Amino acid sequence: MRTRRLGSVLARHAARVRSRRTLLTSLARAVAVTLVAAVLSLPLAAAWGVGHARVSDYLGPNRVDLAADYSGEIEIDLGPLGRAYLTSPYAPVGVRATVGGVGESGSTLGSLFSQETLSAYTALYTDPEEAVRGLVERLERDALQRTAVAEAVLLVGFAVWRLRSGLLAPWVVRRVTRRRTLAVYVTVVAVLVGGVLVPTRPDGPRIPVNLPLPDRTPTISVDSALLADLLGRTVSGIRILSARQQAAVGEWEDTATRSLAAQLDELPRPRSGETMAYGFSDLHCNQATTELMSRLVAVTNPSVVLDSGDDTVNGTAAERGCIRRELGIAGGRPFVVATGNHDSDVTEAQLRAAGAEVLDGAAVRVGGLEVLGDDDPERQVPFSVERTLDRPEDEAQLGQRMLQVARPRPVDAILVHQPTAAAPLMEAPDPPARLVLWGHMHAQVGPTVVTHADGSWTVGMQQGTSGGVKQPTLASFSTPFSPPLVRADSYFYFRDAATGLVTGVQPVHLQPDGRVVIDRRTDTGDLAALPDETRRRLSGASPSPTPDESRR
User: Fold this and answer.
1) End-to-end CA distance of the chain
2) Phi, psi of 533 (to 5 degrees)
3) Residues 508, 519: contact at Cβ < 8 Å?
4) 3-state class of 372 per DSSP?
5) What is the predicted pLDDT for the residue at 4?
6) Quick check: bond before 214 cis, omega within 30?
7) Whole-prediction pTM
8) Beta bridge partners of 461
9) 3 state DSSP class of 408
10) DSSP secondary-structure letter at 495?
11) How many CA atoms lie within 13 A of 111 on its CB side?
């Protein structure tokens, strides 16, 4: 059998191009043929990509492996308990979900239906569409990536087919005709479409179970009487628990809203010549405080929202609704975040999709501020108190890296999550940032002021938990759909517009009983005492007004 090198064939074709007009004609023909080939191969590539999409994540507190197929239904495999089936809203595309155990400990029957699991599943019950949509988005991304790979392979195959006369022996070329190739293509597409649109009916028993789910899915089917009984009793318990939580949240929100409305005249406001930023940390998906924070931002109108991480509880795709609610706090204002140990790469992707500026080690210009930060190198194992390192860097090394990045060109703010990362910044002589924010400990510390040699200063703040969340343990961690368990803190930072120095901090606290407590403003620096040379250097204009001059 006679074959030729692909390179020599391409070289021979290139030698035939004798003029610019010939070259342009050849290029136009090649582009047109490639587009036709891409369109023809897309159905095959898409069918393969969708049918082979795979992701691993969490559904509620349980590890779940998701695999797309063309069954037209959602199959939830609970191992020895049996399987549950729902009609897929994306039919004929279906999904098989294989459920494992809680966290990394493996699957046990006790973990599937424990009290902790029951509590965690209330979030899924209360907001099922957002939870499922988060998982579906991950499947969609994987399907698109696999489709792109399959499309590339098919286009390479088409290119080889186009050059077959120069690559293969004549007797082979005579058999691989256009007509035969077209017949094979049509047959494959017909079989593929038929298999997708007419899936094989599953074997085995199907027992209908009526469940009053919030997404109006009244009935699911299971293949075992044991699972039917367990689901009935479990969903009933979740429904009762969810109703109690929602009632408590509603009562707390009403009380807090009345308390906030009674203090509108005392809300933080910048003085003349100042701008104002809003900061928080460790929200952990708390729906109640998120709602009150949104109202607080709406009536105070800060220029930017600064978030030092731990936005979610476990960093799973099912927490998509939590992220979308959190971005509502900013109300369209710039939102910048350095994610924490309870967040994940999935969380970061959801934050970016929702419109947040997610810090990744480089300074960004947002809301009139130059902000630097990076995600936490530690990662929390979902539904566990264990942590792992996301990269070969510890907290102190993260802080040192931020220090080195900012030293040549100081920034307005540095955001990190843990105090160990903030320590190298706050302990350095003349920290290269006017504001350093962190959280993690669920307790407010500061503000701390570090005076520079030139008379300017840096303000550091360990922000408390804005979600009113106890220190994270598996037993005491509050759920997203509960009132705050401890005081929920957020902060207003006042910045002199001329020099960029932070001139004051004013905390606002949401108490577990619904009271809103607005602290007095703490002034963090005296512009009147700032040396003229430093003031001129920082402002590049006329001196900033003194605090007495700028008071209302």
Assistant:
1) 93
2) -60, -45
3) yes
4) strand
5) 53
6) no
7) 0.78
8) 437
9) coil
10) E
11) 18
Give the number of other CB atoms < 10 A from CB of residue 195: 14
What is the Cα–Cα distance from 232 to 235, expressed in whole angstroms? 6
* DSSP-derived pairing of the beta strands 369-373 and 364-366: antiparallel
Tell the residue number behind the tokens 């939580």, with chain if given. Answer: 245
Helix/strand/coil (H, E, C) string of 133-160?
A: HHHHHHHHHHHHHHHHHHHHHHHHHHHH
Neighbouring-strand partners of residue 351: none
The confidence score (pLDDT) of residue 541 equals 46
What is the separation of C-alpha 431 from the centre of its chain, rounded to a whole number of angstroms? 30
Angstrom distances, CA of residue 236 to CA of 220, 233, 244, 329:
15, 5, 13, 33
Hey, how many other C-beta atoms are within 10 angstroms of the C-beta on 93?
A: 21
Would you state the structure tokens that stand for residue 327, as one six-digit string? 């971005």
pLDDT (0 to 100) of residue 81: 76
CA distances for 120 relative to 58, 71, 124, 314, angstroms: 11, 29, 8, 11
| 219-222 and 83-87 beta bridge pairing | antiparallel
**Across-strand partners of 387?**
380
pLDDT of residue 14: 59
Query: Can you give the length of the chain in residues?
Result: 552
**The one-letter amino acid at 36:** V
10-residue mean pLDDT series, the chain (552 residues): 55 59 73 82 87 82 83 81 79 82 46 51 61 80 91 84 70 70 78 69 73 61 77 70 82 96 95 97 94 96 97 88 94 97 94 96 95 95 79 95 96 97 96 97 95 96 93 55 91 96 98 96 93 86 42 40
- Contact predicate 175/181, CB 8 Å: no
Which helix or strand (DSSP H or E) is residue 357 part of?
strand 357-358
Tokens representing 47?
């069918």
- Between the CA of residue 123 and those of 113, 249, 325, 432, what are the distances in Å? 15, 13, 14, 42
